[in-house]
Amino acid sequence: MPDVVSVNAVTPAFADITTVGVGGRIGVFVQPRDRVGLIEAVEDADSRGLPLCVIGGGSNLLVSDGDFPGVVVRDARQGVSVPDEVAPPEGGEPMVHVNAPAGTNWDDLVSYCVRMGLIGVEGLSGIPGTVGASVVQNIGAYGQEVGRVVDSVEVWDRQDKVTACLRASDLGFGYRTSLLKRTMYQAPAVPDDRFFPTPRYVVLSVTLVLRHGSAARVGSVQLAGALGVVPGSVLPLGRVRQAVLAVRAGKGMLEDPYRYLTDWMGSCRRAADLEEALTAVQDDIHGPGGGRVLLDRHSCGSFFTNPVISREAAAALPEDAPRYPAGEGGRAAHVPMVKTSAAWLIDHAGFHKGFALGRGSAAALSDVHTLALTNRGGAGSDDLVALARAIQEGVDRTFGIHLIPEPVTPGINLA
Prior knowledge:
By secondary structure, the chain is of the alpha+beta class. About 25% of the residues lie in helices and about 20% in strands. The strands form seven sheets. Strands 5, 6, 7, 10, 11 and 14 form a six-stranded antiparallel beta sheet that branches. A four-stranded mixed beta sheet has the order 1-2-4-3, covered by helices on one side. A three-stranded antiparallel beta sheet has the order 17-19-18.
């Protein structure tokens, strides 16, 4: 593939480079293969006042079917390095820095860390996307979040036109958010036109700090159940990773690995890790789910974030609604907040697994997870937006809670 393609007839569409397989034709598509090229591509678009979308794996993106009259930049750099070891605290476990450019496939990095006996990201196995996107979203699953193991993030500041090294304490990590993500929005799901759909700070590379070891503590109740152990058990890293992948596969929350055999995605994964994913999905396809396995993976992952609400709002929910402590927040400082389950709200508002707005609709909820809106084949952005809005309205009507979309949605208003 060329580094730069600027003729509409031969550029990809967002449908070609996103996991949901939806989105219009791209005006200019740039794949920088070095750090300087990435900065130059971003600065060139900004200096010309063009819309800019820096894309990772395309897993957290739902784009309008209309043409995108701007520049899409995808970092083509990949790889993982261990620059140095960190002196452990007295009596503590040995630590190690792990660095990767933003374009590295996230699960390739996790696979590397597990093979090398590095603890701290095994619970994040199988999450689609890239290393750069992981810190924007502060990805998390099964008792882990990337923000807890970030040492620093090197960024290009689009406003001040400089590179900067942001420490973990600078990044404002929270539930599925960060300082990086917040620079795109005026309010939740309300774009800030100065930067959207790309943060002010474009991630160049990420450095994590992990622990040496061959076994990890299983903190998640759900994961412990899948492993047949009690929470707190210590198990080999490889076994934990395989259990996470199996649980995610059962929910349709792995991406379709066949996308990496297409022209526009062919260089985006390490060959050995792709081969492993292709082998694993064959077992799933020949299982009870059959061909539906891949259809359930044609999504943006979890489409709505779990609402964080006041204790009063949580008390008004049905008794069996999930409730988890979520720290303090709200409009007033030091107000205790509660997190509830978007999947539970959606299901109990009448939108069950497999729900669609009409028989034969090309957009439907996953057959195995109510949080995933899927492209069943030939869906357009309007189909998925109509389904998303119907769910938002139904949950709001039933519970008085407005669901916030998790994906970035250029050209689409789901606020």
